[in-house]
Amino acid sequence: MALRKCFLALALTAHLSCEGSSLQVSAAGKTCVKVIGDESYTCCDLGLNEIPESLPSSLKILDFSFNAIFAIYQSTFSRLRSLRHLDLTRCLISWLYEGAFASNPDLDTLVLIGNPLISVEISVILVGLMGVNAHILRIGTFQDVADNIGIAPHMLQAICNITTAEVNLQNMHFSGLSSSTFQCLTKIQKLDLTNTGLSDLPSGISNNSLLTDLILNENSFEHACDIKLASFPFLTRLSLKRTEALQLGSGCFKDLAKLQYLDLSISGIGSSDCCSAQFQGLVSLKYLNLSYNDMHTVQDLAFQDNIHLELLDFTHTHLKVNASQKPFRNLQHLRMLNLSSSHADTSNRDLLTGLKSLVILNLKGNAFSSGIIHSSNLLQQVPNLEVLILSECELIAIDNEAFHNLTKLKYVLLNRNKLTMFSTNAFYDLRQIVLNFAENHIKIIPQKMVNGISGLSIIDLSYNPLDCSCDNIEFLTWLHKNMDKMENLEETSCSTPNALAGTRLDMVMLSCGVPVVVIVLIVVLLPLLIAASAFMILYCLKRRYHSI
Ligand SMILES: *[C@@H]1O[C@H](CO)[C@@H](O)[C@H](O)[C@H]1NC(C)=O
Ligand SMILES: *[C@@H]1O[C@H](CO)[C@@H](O)[C@H](O)[C@H]1NC(C)=O
Ligand SMILES: *[C@@H]1O[C@H](CO)[C@@H](O)[C@H](O)[C@H]1NC(C)=O
Ligand SMILES: *[C@@H]1O[C@H](CO)[C@@H](O)[C@H](O)[C@H]1NC(C)=O
Ligand SMILES: *[C@@H]1O[C@H](CO)[C@@H](O)[C@H](O)[C@H]1NC(C)=O
Ligand SMILES: *[C@@H]1O[C@H](CO)[C@@H](O)[C@H](O)[C@H]1NC(C)=O
Is 163 exposed, middle or buried (0-12, 13-18, 19+ CB in 10 A)? Predict the structure, then answer.
């Protein structure tokens, strides 16, 4: 993460120096670079041992990550009184003196991730941070640090003396956790305990009335009830990503009436009777991510309490629904449903019943019976759909009326299928639609299929085995007049005839010789002409013979 951030900063600075507008500040031959306005500088990864004197004292944002300053004294940042955001990721800092940031009353975000001071003792840092009002405090470490650093309960007590809204302790390990460990965290709003070796949280944690955002990714909880979520009744966001094999149990989330966002992705979750008991009580839930889990057998009305859901992600989670059941029928606010690679039963026409507000539907990687989308299909239930993803569904054909009920459709991905026809009949409105038919088996496109494409519409036919002979002249002619309606033209090339294979379609200038009408005239009129001449000659000969 931090490395990437550094790269980003460097990329940005490179760009800025190209513009010649950036003022550079140098220290011992190394240059810090101004990023935006007068207020933001990056000195990322310059091997600096001190803060350059030449940095303006008015600066507000300083990325000083990946340098080597070893310790922070009261004087280190005393000149930079306006500092708001300070990134000291991996700066080899092992000591933080008391009052180290006493001169920086506006400090809002302080990042100390990956510094060896964590191996000294967290209380040292916390004493050093006394009086700091930073809104966001990222201490944590990197995953690759050989020994995970233990946090004994008494160490966290020092947090009582700092006021900060967000604390990140990722990759540190707690030893001897008790309810008093968390006693001082009551002022915190956001707590990140990613990969801290937790398998349960103690009960009786004091009423964490301010904590709204709890990140518990990559821990070892076996059962959601072990987290004792009743201690956090004001949570609005909870993330439990990458828990190895989590059992959701029944009612473990029931006290989280304010929870809006729940991420349970990649956590080995499986259930044979999902989901109303598991998500009971989550009456404010808007976002639920269940992607990359095991199999779920989903009941009718599976999200009974979660009527405010707006986004549901089932990607790569095997979704089993008994025939003709309507699992989502009460989710009238759902706007996005991702069922990609979920083995969804697309022949169940009731699967999507009730999703009146659905705008985005991702069905990528699901099969349709015989490879055909029939005119009566599950999509007729979602009339407000704007984005439909049907990539990699092994489709060979789409019925003419398949999408007629979807009058708002604006973006349709049908790439990576086995379609041989480019047909626009199935779509209700062709004035403002993006149709992606890339990587199919389309050769010839009749003119009537492209005639209706107008306004802002765009089609993508790249990577199809397109024919560039006179058989396809109608489309080629249309294309030359409508280049602006084609996406990915550089990858749209001829496959046949051999002489043109690989040539971009827009480069092909085909002259298909004598127009058909002329040929017809010639074919019909020539024998007539011959017959008429013969008759004339015969007549003349006859006259001459008579006159003799
Ligand atoms: C908090 O600060 C006070 C002095 O301001 C000190 O006496 C006390 O020990 C500190 N508490 C912790 C837990 O560090
Ligand atoms: C926590 O505090 C809230 C209000 O601040 C209160 O309604 C609730 O009963 C308290 N819960 C416990 C377990 O003390
Ligand atoms: C759900 O989680 C997966 C994996 O963590 C992530 O890639 C995906 O973007 C999430 N879905 C949404 C809609 O945020
Ligand atoms: C699905 O149907 C089978 C038999 O038809 C039944 O045993 C099972 O309980 C049903 N599952 C659900 C979730 O309704
Ligand atoms: C599911 O699809 C949606 C919409 O295309 C996307 O935003 C989301 O990230 C996808 N989820 C995963 C896990 O890729
Ligand atoms: C379109 O939807 C309406 C009700 O939503 C339904 O009566 C009609 O049969 C649907 N059209 C098709 C072609 O299925």
Answer: middle
Is 329:353 a contact under the CB 8 Å cutoff? yes
- C-alpha distances (whole Å) from 8 to each of 11, 13, 14, 470 are 5, 9, 10, 50
Report whether 254 contacts 280 (CB < 8 A). Answer: yes
Map residue 314 onto helix, strand or coil: coil
pLDDT digits (tens, 9 = 90+) for 107-147: 888 888 878 765 555 666 666 666 666 667 777 666 555 45
Tell if the pTM clears 0.85, that is, is over it. no
**Separation CA 150–CA 173 (nearest Å):** 5
Q: Which one of 242, 286, 291 would you pick to mutate in the ligand 3 pocket, going by the greatest count of ligand atoms within 8 A of its CB?
A: 291
Cis peptide before 105 (omega within 30 of 0): no
Say how many Å lie between the CA of residue 158 and the centre of ligand 1.
7
pLDDT digits (tens, 9 = 90+) for 143-199: 555 455 566 666 666 666 666 777 787 877 776 677 766 766 667 788 888 988 888
Ligand in closest contact with the CA of 298: 4
Compute the distance from residue 384 Cα to the ligand 5 centre, in Å: 19
Helix (H) or strand (E) holding 2: helix 2-19
Question: Cis peptide leading into 6, omega within 30 of 0?
Answer: no
d(C-alpha 126, C-alpha 408), whole Å: 56
Round to whole Å and give the CA distance between 534 and 131: 116
Q: For 43, how many CA atoms within 13 A lie in the half-sphere containing its CB?
A: 30
Task: Supply angle C-alpha 125, 169, 251, rounded to 5.
Answer: 145
The whole-angstrom separation of Cα 298 and Cα 275 is 7
SS (H, E, C) 359-426: CEEECCCCCCHHHEECCCCHHHHCCCCCEEECCCCCCCEECCCCCCCCCCCCEEECCCCCCCCCCCCC
Q: How far is the CA of 354 from the centre of ligand 3 (A)?
A: 24
Say if residues 358 and 352 touch (Cβ distance below 8 Å): yes
State whether residue 544 is helix, strand or coil: helix
Counted residue by residue, the chain has a size of 548
Dihedral sign for Cα 325, 327, 328, 330, please. Answer: positive
Establish how many alpha carbons lie within 13 A of residue 213's alpha carbon, considering only the half-sphere containing its beta carbon. Answer: 10
Q: Which has the closest alpha carbon to 358: 415, 424, 408, 322?
A: 408
Output the residue whose Cα is nearest ligand 1's atom 11: 158
Any ligand 4 atom below 6 A from CB of 323: no
Question: Residue 120 is encoded by which pair of tokens?
Answer: 């000294």
